[in-house]
Design a protein that fits this description.
This protein is an alpha+beta fold. The chain has two helices and 19 strands. Among the domains are: 40-142, Immunoglobulins (Immunoglobulin-like), CATH 2.60.40.10; 146-242, Immunoglobulins (Immunoglobulin-like, Sandwich). It is found in: Cell membrane; Synapse.
């Protein structure tokens, strides 16, 4: 059963003085949850003090359908200040909005039920005058987050890999795995037991084991947790490598060594060949010189014989 805000007494939250707040925005720590007509009762409040255009934002995780009570108060110069409530930027017109003024404090309360995913999102109390916005409090409601893995998983063809997703402090109704391709998300065929295995040790986590990895198994995977108020997704990236990949650096180094050794051998062969050619030319010149000297000696002897 939901009580109309006017049907029961309202308790104004504590108002911080401008001196205590140092003219800055304050967020009270008041937040309560209890069972209310088979719904979770969530109560939150925000105080805005003193500064023009003050803004406060609060994020809330809802695990199940909830009865929500939101309160905002604005203190300071409240002359000509009005307050409106908005959802995703659109003004809310509801009989469940209550506004009250006490001294220099303008107080507002909004009660609602969040029963499905369309009612999640941002709700804002906005205080403004004819000239400017004086303050704003934003309440963001969403389902629990799902965490995959930030860094890619790396494995090799023929091996197996286990991908894990977790939901902190919340148990989803079910888990669904998807493979991301060019056209979108495709459900993983977990019925193929020879290829996939689903396992989880805890209710708030899911594990997908892929057997006999191939290059086609690489890519992005999405794990979707289904909660009473909607779904939440995590992401896991998988890289599948060939066993030749780790050898590529060594093969590249070996190729460089072979090329270097070949160049050195060719240089040595060229140097030796050049040395041999030079030595052969020297020997040839020496032989020619000896022949020339022998010829000169014979000619000299002949001349001497003629003179005699």
């Amino acid at each position: 059963m939901i009580h109309h805000p006017l049907s029961h007494p309202l308790i104004l939250p504590s108002v911080y003085s401008a001196a205590d707040a140092d003219l800055r925005t304050q967020i009270p720590s008041e937040e309560a949850e209890e069972t209310h007509s088979n719904l979770t009762f969530v109560k939150q409040s925000i105080s805005l003090i003193g500064t023009p255009s003050a803004s406060v934002e609060r994020n809330t995780i809802l695990h199940s359908p909830s009865h929500v009570e939101l309160t905002c108060n604005f203190s300071g110069d409240i002359n000509s200040v009005r307050v409106i409530w908005k959802k995703e930027g659109e003004q809310i017109n509801s009989s469940h909005i209550f506004i009250n003024q006490t001294g220099n404090v303008l107080y507002t309360q909004y009660t609602l039920q969040i029963l499905n995913s369309t009612q999640l999102g941002s709700y804002a109390c906005v205080f403004e005058d004819a000239v400017e916005r004086r303050g704003r409090g934003v309440f963001n409601f969403k389902v629990p987050e799902v965490h995959g893995k930030d860094k890619p998983l790396i494995s090799y063809e023929g091996d197996s890999v286990v991908m894990i997703c977790k939901s902190e402090n919340s148990v989803p109704l079910t888990w669904i795995w998807f493979k991301v391709n060019e056209t979108g998300q495709v459900p993983v065929e977990t019925e193929m037991k020879e290829k996939y295995e689903l396992a989880s040790k805890y209710a708030n986590e899911t594990k997908l084991k892929i057997l006999q990895l191939s290059e086609q198994d690489g890519g992005s995977y999405t794990c979707r947790a289904i909660f009473p108020l909607g779904g939440s997704e995590g992401k896991v990236d998988l890289k599948v490598l060939s066993y030749l990949v780790p050898l590529k650096p060594f093969l590249a180094i070996a190729a460089e060594v072979i090329i270097l050794v070949t160049i050195i051998l060719l240089y040595e062969m060229h140097t030796k060949r050049k040395q041999n050619t030079t030595e052969g030319e020297k020997e040839f010149e020496q032989i020619e010189q000896l022949k020339s000297e022998d010829s000169n000696g014979i000619e000299n002897n002949t001349t001497r014989h003629r003179k005699i």
